[in-house]
Amino acid sequence: MSNTLMRRGEMNGIEVARSAQNITMNFPIAPIVFSSCGSFLGLAYLLKKKSFPKYLKDPGRRNAWLWRNTFCSLIHSCASAVWTFFCYYDEPKLLGDMVNTTTNLSIQLLSFSTGYFMYDFLDVVLNDGFRQVFILTHHTAVITAFSLALTNERYMGFGVCALIMEFNSIFLHIRRLMKLVNHSSGWKSINGVFLLLTMLFCRICLSCWMVRWLLQNRDLLQYSHYVVGLVGMVIMTVTNVGLMYRLWMSDFHKKSINKKVLSEIKK
């Protein structure tokens, strides 16, 4: 009798373990993706109705849209940055095994971010046409890579690692919001320092490291997945380098030139 009960207990334990694994592997992805996309569309609509940007230095139609779009992007960056931290806290193996390790948090994070990038792609095309080619190319690469990871239930660690870049995006979006409202104070300089540091480490160094990881571990990936990942990371790396160059020229190089001009005038 006791042996029978023990066997039943073991079988129940196995069933519970299997059901827990199925919860992780069969997590509802599509509802999160479309809920995320719809939520950001709803937020942008509410911001448009509320007419929040009262202090824009140039309250034109495009600047008002840029303010709304950047505010929504800041919400995504803050949420994704915190979410990424908790993904690694919950399962550190996501960084060690970026192919096979999968958790509920990582699935939710990639689904949430895929929905956001879908929203942002639509928002940019509908309100700004194809003027921001770099942004649209970047979003296409990210949506393709994340969709591949979610449908194959693999590469979650790689996707979470890519979202470390959102730490830098926080300061990028704050910078744009400050420029739109013509905000000039000590906070702008502080944000500029964090922007430059996170740009260097969370974008440039990280994207180069991820390209190197793909090249070294190509045998772990299916060839088609490897090509998609490599092309996506090359696009992101080129975009990040271009972003770094534009940031340096507009914020730091320009300031050094202005200082030289002022010093010459004083002489």
TrEMBL record:
<dbReference type="InterPro" id="IPR006634">
    <property type="entry name" value="TLC-dom"/>
</dbReference>
<protein>
    <recommendedName>
        <fullName>TLC domain-containing protein</fullName>
    </recommendedName>
</protein>
<dbReference type="GO" id="GO:0005886">
    <property type="term" value="C:plasma membrane"/>
</dbReference>
<dbReference type="GO" id="GO:0097035">
    <property type="term" value="P:regulation of membrane lipid distribution"/>
</dbReference>
<feature type="transmembrane region" description="Helical">
    <location>
        <begin position="194"/>
        <end position="215"/>
    </location>
</feature>
<dbReference type="Pfam" id="PF03798">
    <property type="entry name" value="TRAM_LAG1_CLN8"/>
</dbReference>
<dbReference type="GO" id="GO:0071709">
    <property type="term" value="P:membrane assembly"/>
</dbReference>
<dbReference type="GO" id="GO:0007009">
    <property type="term" value="P:plasma membrane organization"/>
</dbReference>
<keyword id="KW-1133">Transmembrane helix</keyword>
<keyword id="KW-0472">Membrane</keyword>
<keyword id="KW-0812">Transmembrane</keyword>
<feature type="transmembrane region" description="Helical">
    <location>
        <begin position="227"/>
        <end position="248"/>
    </location>
</feature>
<dbReference type="GO" id="GO:0055091">
    <property type="term" value="P:phospholipid homeostasis"/>
</dbReference>
<feature type="domain" description="TLC">
    <location>
        <begin position="62"/>
        <end position="261"/>
    </location>
</feature>
<dbReference type="InterPro" id="IPR050846">
    <property type="entry name" value="TLCD"/>
</dbReference>
<feature type="transmembrane region" description="Helical">
    <location>
        <begin position="66"/>
        <end position="86"/>
    </location>
</feature>
<feature type="transmembrane region" description="Helical">
    <location>
        <begin position="106"/>
        <end position="126"/>
    </location>
</feature>
<feature type="transmembrane region" description="Helical">
    <location>
        <begin position="27"/>
        <end position="46"/>
    </location>
</feature>
<feature type="transmembrane region" description="Helical">
    <location>
        <begin position="133"/>
        <end position="150"/>
    </location>
</feature>
<feature type="transmembrane region" description="Helical">
    <location>
        <begin position="156"/>
        <end position="174"/>
    </location>
</feature>
